[in-house]
Amino acid sequence: MPFLSKNEALEQVKQNILKDKVCPDLAAGATQLVFGDGDPNSSIVFIGEAPGKAEDSTGLPFVGAAGKFLNEMLETIDLKRSAVYITNIVKYRPPNNRDPMPEEKKAFLPYLQQQLEVIQPKIVVALGRHAASCFLPQLKISQDHGHAKRITLAFRDQPFTIVLLPLFHPAAALYNGSMRQTLIDDFSLIPDIISQLDNSELVLNK
Ligand code: URA
Questions:
Q1: What tens digit of pLDDT does each residue of 30-67 get?
Q2: Residue 163 DSSP class
Q3: Residue 199's pLDDT is what?
């Protein structure tokens, strides 16, 4: 097998989604597949729920109102959007922006896992309960947001450890004053997690 760069390996994952005809009903109602965006060499991956209207028309995740808020929060912690990798669990826009269904999340999960295997991030920020429960099925986002957890991902034969930070979804927090502040406060934990990981002295609060 020839050596593939991360970008080439991710392109293969994308092509597999198309070839495997994942969620054909969702695909038929969507403009295009919204696969992911950003730096595949980043140590931080942000995972959302599913594309909305703006994402469906541009092919890029988090470019609508929720994406603007995400960009603002990244700025508050001095992280450039281009320096992180951003994707969603479900990669086609659900009709009328409805919540993704359990079978849709299940169908897309192996491809999200493949993306993570290629990127090998150190930190996964799960934006909202749909993304977070892919990793922690029992999670209650109202209780568990902002509590970083070290977990081992063992999808195929090469287990690797990440820090998972579950957060509220930016769209849910956008127009809710107290949730918005909570999300901003939880976001401010990210630089500490990064520097503690760099110094290998991460103490998790849960
Ligand atoms: N909400 C998401 O979960 N993902 C996007 O890409 C946009 C909005």
A1: 999 999 999 999 999 999 999 999 999 999 999 999 99
A2: E
A3: 75
Atom of ligand 1 nearest to the CA of 66: 8
| b/e sequence 13-39, b meaning 16+ C-beta within 10 Å | bbeebeeeebbeebbeebeebbbbbbb
**Confidence tier at 200 by pLDDT (50, 70, 90):** low
Residues with Cβ < 8 Å from 27, sequence gap 6 or more?
A: 21, 33, 92
Strands annotated E in the chain: 37-38, 44-48, 85-88, 123-127, 149-153, 160-167
Taking the C-alpha atoms of residue 83 and residue 99, their distance in angstroms, rounded to an integer, is 28
Name all residues whose Cβ lies below 6 A of ligand 1.
48-52, 55, 61-62, 64, 66-67, 88, 171
Task: Report which of 126, 122, 148 is spatially closest to residue 135, judged by C-alpha positions.
Answer: 126
- Specify the pLDDT at position 205: 44
Paired tokens of 111: 């491809």
| Cβ atoms within 10 Å of 79's Cβ, excluding its own | 19
SS (HEC) of 76-121: HCCCCHHHCEEEECCCCCCHHHCCCCHHHHHHHHHHHHHHHHHHCC
Could you give the domains of the chain?
Answer: 6-197 (3.40.470.10)
Going by the DSSP 8-state scheme, the letter that residue 43 receives in this structure is S
